[in-house]
Amino acid sequence: MKPAVVLLSGGLDSATTLAIARSQGYEAHVLSFAYGQRHSRELDSASRVAAALGARNRLVLTLDLRAIGGSALTGDLAVPKSRTAGEIGVGIPVTYVPARNTIFLAHALAWAEVLGAEDVFFGANVMDYSGYPDCRPEYLQAFERLADLATKAGVEGKSRFRVHAPLIRMTKAEIIRTGHTLGVDFSLTWSCYEPTADGRPCGLCDSCTLRKKGFAEAGLTDPLCYAA
Amino acid sequence: MKPAVVLLSGGLDSATTLAIARSQGYEAHVLSFAYGQRHSRELDSASRVAAALGARNRLVLTLDLRAIGGSALTGDLAVPKSRTAGEIGVGIPVTYVPARNTIFLAHALAWAEVLGAEDVFFGANVMDYSGYPDCRPEYLQAFERLADLATKAGVEGKSRFRVHAPLIRMTKAEIIRTGHTLGVDFSLTWSCYEPTADGRPCGLCDSCTLRKKGFAEAGLTDPLCYAA
Predict the structure, then answer these.
(1) Where in the sequence is the domain holding B129, given as residue range(s)?
(2) SS3 call for A61
(3) A111 inside 8 A of chain B by CB
């Protein structure tokens, strides 16, 4: 089996991405980050998802993105609540973390180089947050170009680094249906940006809102129990 | 003054790069990394160099590159000793750290975005280690292209991200002469990959060898006291 690094947050997008990589026959080396996110609960989910989907191994790296700041997910800004899907889709939300995907992909590249892997799977998606600059296809192509210039194997012409983003143009409902077909256990996944004190997903943040809407449109039942 | 992020390891290249940024009128926000390097002694040097050269502030981020491995600087491979400058210049040395510069620049980009800075200064150099893929001009240009696609301001056409690498084609002797002219106190800098138990630079690793040769060719005295 061909090795691939799979970025796994513990959310349903990255869980579905891992399932796709496995279904394509890749040996999955799963990479997660403890980056100071409010919702570090997602790391437990990532661990369970990786095991359930037969990941070869898993590396959790600690990053201090809180020291850099600039985002509601890592800083003092409030997480927006009770916005509609239409409101969420306008502009770049305060939950954008500056250069986070570049930092994540850079580490994935490092690990891929050590593993001798040419493939990285990444659950980027342009549909819901159309404003996230570092989820767009042209951004991912620019990263592939950079990667081939950055590494030993790329320079020697021995490898052609590829960022696979199989979800990039799917709606949330399509992602959920795809994951369902591939056997993803969504009860293991986590999406909420700001869980309640008793550990339930809030049901009101943008991430909960889009998840609920996605399950409704997919005609499937979300196994999570929301606070609201 | 225009803000810039300056990557500072504590070595003489990055110290000279910081001096150049200051001489060009930039307000320097200095970024260093504790990435599991054997020679973490360089971080103390970075602190002193930043203060001496009037950095506005300094951020030290911790990265776990040791968990990724693949390099003599972060792993179990031995640091080569007593190689000649000619031997050092052939191929990619084992002190290459996979994707390290991409990881460093990604963090610099994140901090620049939060600071509203468009400029990053980076002491990359192609002369001594001609084999390091992620020090080449075409690599740095690819990073600039990526950065403009990755960030809010770049997407909105409000900024044009630039990686300044003023040393890229200088010899070590030229770097030392430039730093000397700009008032860099080289006694504060640190280059050795593997200091002795009593805290002196070994004098035998590739980094010590190139530094000694550079001072000799520049006709200047290296203020450091080597073990060998």
Answers:
(1) 2-218
(2) strand
(3) yes
Assigned domain for A126 exists: yes
Count of domains in chain A?
1
Give the pair of three-digit tokens for residue B48.
Answer: 């002193």
Which residues of chain B neighbour A146 with C-beta distances below 8 Å?
Answer: 102, 139, 142-143, 145-146
Which of B59, B67, B102 lies at the smallest CB-CB distance from A61? B67
Side chain identity at B29, as an amino acid letter? H
The Cα-based distances of B43 to B1, B46, B50 in angstroms read: 26, 5, 10
Is some CB atom of chain A closer than 8 A to the CB atom of B69? Answer: yes
Are A206 and A95 a contacting pair, CB within 8 Å?
yes
- Whether the per-residue pLDDT at A129 is higher than 70: the answer is no
B174: buried, middle or exposed (CB in 10 Å: 19+, 13-18, 0-12)? Answer: middle
Q: Is position A165 within any domain?
A: yes
Which one of A66, A141, A152, A156 would you mutate to disrupt binding with B, by most B Cβ within 10 Å of its Cβ?
A152
pLDDT digits (tens, 9 = 90+) for B177-206: 999 999 999 999 999 999 999 999 999 999
Quick check: is A198 in a domain?
Answer: no
At B50, which CATH number?
3.40.50.620
Per-residue pLDDT, B190: 96
Structure tokens belonging to residue B130: 């001609």
With a CB cutoff of 8 Å and minimum separation 6, the contacts of B107 are A68, A99, A103, B31, B33, B61
ipTM of the predicted structure? Answer: 0.91
A57 DSSP β-pair partners: A29
User: Residue A91 domain-assigned?
Assistant: yes
The closest of B94, B140, B134, B97 to B119, measured between CA atoms, is: B140
Nearest by CB to residue A143, choosing from B100, B133, B146, is B146
B151-170 average pLDDT score:
87
Asked if residues A28 and A55 have their Cβ atoms less than 8 Å apart, the reply is yes
Phi, psi of B48 (to 5 degrees): -70, -40
Smallest Cα distance from A119 to chain B, Å: 15
